[in-house]
Amino acid sequence: MVSLHSRVVAARDQVSCDLAGEAAILRLTTGVYYGLDPVGAQIWALLRQPVRVDGIRDVLLAEYDVTPERCERDLLALLDRLAAEGLIDVGDEAAGDAT
Fold this sequence. Notes:
Blueprint: E1 6-10, E2 14-19, E3 22-27, E4 32-36, H1 38-46, E5 51-52, H2 53-63, H3 68-84, E6 88-92
Helix pairs in contact: 2-3
């Protein structure tokens, strides 16, 4: 499960591209495509390098008119789904995992 202190990064076994501000992602091991809306695409762009989840949250809070609680809830839900699909790697910052 992803937390605000987790470090996340896009998995290596995927390719993605921008489609008019949205993101299309292909998981190479399964051949399944995924799509992200413009906010999801912005999050995906931040995942190109390992980043802490609270850092992503801070970027979103600076960019969008959203409460911190809703931003955290929606961000964690998206990252949990991406992790469950194998599209991101998740490490535990507290354990020193370098993801």
